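Consider this:
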Amino acid sequence: MRIPAELLILLDAQITHERTNAAIYAQMASFLDARSLVYLAKYMQSQAKGEQFHADKLVNYLSDRDDYATFGNIPAPELSPTISAAEYFTVALSVERSTTYGVVELYRVARAMDPQTEVFLHWYLIEQVEEENVVGEICDRFLRSANLGDEWMDNFVRENFDRLTGK
């Protein structure tokens, strides 16, 4: 059975959102790497890959349901290379909160229209709780360690990389 048209439009929008998020995280990784904040950059690159994985998982789901994705345009990230590392993580938290909002809306519509998609989206809801929690923790660490500098945070991420990235 095919996915209802209204739900398919929302799924397509979420795929585009995830692909846009991947570009945002990749851009932040590049800016951080240019400052030799290697582990902060590595974390952002891991997030970029995670966002692309989410998009791919949604595309594969559509294919499994005998449907296809219609990709929207991905705008260039509007980020400055000169903002602080802490500000990049504030952007990341905003990105994750926006994603959560979209997933919850998608789930609400799926619940009313398509039980298969509703069940499929359970992983995504749980994933977003984890994503917001980890990025929120890093933002809190930046706030509490403001006087220690970005290098201290880079070292913190290095020491906790596997836990922070779920590896």
